[in-house]
Each structure stands twice: as C-alpha cells, then as structure tokens.
C-alpha cells in the first residue's frame, strides 16, 4: 500500500527492450541502443522477484511486456516456472503479435492466461507505414492462433493518432466483434523515444466514443475493479469495447500497478522519474527481506498522479519501449 491507500496487486514485467517493429509513435526508424544482454534480468532473477512479489507483497497478476516479449528466448519455460509458483499469479502478455501464431499453443500449455495484441490498423499499406514493417498478415494470424489456443479474452490494443489511423476506429471495433476479440483504444501518451508527441494529434476518449457511436450503440459498463479501461457494451452483441484515457480521464486514484524494467529497475508509475535498482540487490547477494524492503519503499514514494496535464509534468528519461507497456 502506498501513502494514498492504493494497494498494488498488478505487476507489469518487461522481459526485453528489443522489438521487431519500429512504430512511428514509439521509436525512430533506426531503432534504439538496446540494453546489453548482461544487464537484462535472467530467468532465475525474474522468478525470484516474482516469487517475492507474490509471497510477500500481494501481487496477484503479472503482465509480461517489452519491447516485444516474444523475442525473448525460452519464453514458454519461463512462463511455466512463473505459473508453478505458490501462490501463482495470473499471467498475461502484451505483444505486437508477430510470432504469436507459432507459439500461442505452447504459451497456453505453459500456463499463460490471455494476450493483449497491439494492432493500430487493418490496412496493409498503413500498417507498413506505421510500423515500418510489412507484417500485418502475421499479426492477424497471431490473433487467430491465440483465440484458437484458448488465450481468452484476446484483447486488441490500438492507439489512434489524428491524421494517421483515426478514421479506422469503427472498423477496428467491427473487426473485433466479428472475430470474438475485445477491442481497446488507448490515448497516445508522451512516451515516445523521439520526444515528438503532440497533444493536438492525440485522439481523446470522447472523440473515440463519438466515432464508435456513429456505427454502434453503446451501453456503459464501467471499470472492472482497478482496470485502466472504461468499458461499453456494444448493443446487440456479446462484445465490449474499452477506452484507456490516461491523459484526459486519468485513473491514478485507483492505480494498482507497479512496473519492473528488463534491467531490474522497479518503477511505481509509468511516468516515474526515479527507479529502485532491484537487480543490484540480487547480484549483490541481498536476501529476500532486503528485496521486500526496497519494493515497499519504492511503492511508499509513489506520487498522487502522473501530472501530464500539469505545467510541472516532466517526461521520464526512458521511453515506453524501455519501461515496459
């Protein structure tokens, strides 16, 4: 629990800062300077930190992120080790979907519960322009494979950007309804490596709902527990659509998330400007009591909110790909 009474049960765990796409709103075309492999947490270190988190700190959900987590070697084995913990966390993954077709069944058999797949457009030429890679067919195949493997609900995440893909909002909803996926729209945030984010290019939650409402009737569902997405049921279907309005409708007051970067830095907020070095503790021979104390201290220092809409807002030093989504 932090000083504002928020109880943190959800860990976003980055497995790598590397990615096989170069999305324009995330990183430059040439990519970034990746972390050296010896700075990345090993499997044993990850399992130990998650064990401490579940046994001592109340973590019940772990979301594996990146970079692109599917590029990490031996991922099914790591998932099996994490789901074998007692207590075992509910384990999910956020991925760009490339490579998911070949491993969805193995991930499910290892204990993965569900997937979130990033997909900003259904048009091949636009996908290639946004991601700088011609891989839309692979992502669509990955979504199908995840659904067939029972990784439900399969959630599809899209970031609408004005003048780029905002004309596809209703099309993406229809695609999700037709295929049994759960659509999520996320307001773009100032976390790109280039520092090129512009507020006037961000499509707000209100605009997103207006675009959806042009084709579908919506009934409010609300927010599930402390989930970041507000949800609406699409009338006449079994589907719901969610909007994560981190900028215009901040949900900091109910935030239950903590983040661990691929190099072992604990962050109490996506927009935190300070980190706690758990990797140094592990490699320095610290016992579990010391790791627990550092974790509790980090959470204790969490701010009331991210302050994006304040003049005092300061971007974190790391971009989203290095923090973990």
Radius of gyration (CA) equals: 19 Å
Separation of the first and last Cα atoms: 22 Å
Category from helices, strands and their pairing: alpha/beta
Number of domains: 1
Percent range of helical residues: 25-40%
Name the CATH architecture: Alpha-Beta Barrel
**The CATH H-level homologous superfamily:** Aldolase class I
Extract low-pLDDT stretches.
none
Q: Quaternary status of these chains?
A: single chain
Largest sheet: 12 strands, mixed
List keywords for this structure.
325 residues, TIM Barrel, 12-stranded mixed beta sheet, 12 strands
Summarize the structure.
The chain has 325 residues and is of the alpha/beta class.
What is the secondary structure topology, with strand pairs?
Elements: E1 10-14, H1 43-56, E2 61-65, H2 75-83, E3 90-95, H3 100-110, E4 114-118, H4 124-131, H5 136-149, E5 155-158, H6 169-179, E6 182-186, H7 205-213, E7 218-223, E8 230-234, E9 240-244, E10 257-260, E11 265-267, E12 276-277, H8 278-283, H9 288-300, H10 320-323
């Amino acid at each position: 629990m932090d000083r504002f009474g928020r109880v943190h049960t959800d860990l976003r765990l980055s497995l790598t800062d590397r990615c096989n796409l170069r999305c324009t709103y995330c990183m430059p075309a040439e990519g970034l300077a990746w972390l050296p492999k010896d700075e990345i947490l090993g499997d044993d270190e990850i399992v130990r930190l998650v064990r401490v988190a579940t046994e001592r700190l109340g973590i019940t959900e772990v979301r594996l992120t990146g970079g692109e987590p599917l590029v990490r070697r031996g991922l099914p084995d790591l998932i099996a080790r994490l789901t074998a913990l007692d207590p075992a966390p509910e384990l999910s993954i956020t991925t760009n979907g490339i490579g998911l077709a070949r491993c969805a069944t193995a991930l499910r058999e290892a204990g993965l519960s569900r997937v979130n797949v990033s997909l900003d457009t259904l048009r091949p030429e636009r996908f290639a322009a946004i991601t700088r890679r011609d891989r839309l067919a692979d992502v669509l195949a990955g979504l199908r494979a995840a659904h067939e493997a029972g990784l439900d609900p399969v959630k599809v995440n899209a970031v609408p950007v004005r003048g780029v893909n905002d004309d596809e909002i209703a099309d993406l909803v229809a695609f999700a309804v037709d295929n049994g996926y759960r659509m999520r729209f996320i307001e773009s945030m100032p976390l790109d490596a280039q520092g090129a984010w512009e507020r006037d290019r961000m499509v707000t939650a209100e605009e997103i709902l207006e675009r959806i409402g042009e084709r579908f009737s919506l009934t409010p569902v609300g927010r599930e527990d402390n989930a970041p997405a507000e949800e609406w049921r699409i009338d006449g279907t079994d589907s719901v659509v969610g909007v994560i309005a981190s900028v215009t409708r901040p949900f900091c007051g109910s935030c239950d998330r903590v983040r661990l970067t691929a190099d072992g830095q604990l962050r109490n907020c996506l927009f935190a400007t300070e980190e706690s070095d758990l990797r140094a503790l592990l490699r320095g021979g610290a016992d579990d009591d010391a790791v627990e104390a550092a974790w509790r201290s980090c959470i204790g220092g969490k701010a009331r909110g991210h302050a994006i809409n304040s003049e005092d807002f300061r971007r974190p030093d790391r971009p989203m790909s290095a923090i973990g989504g």
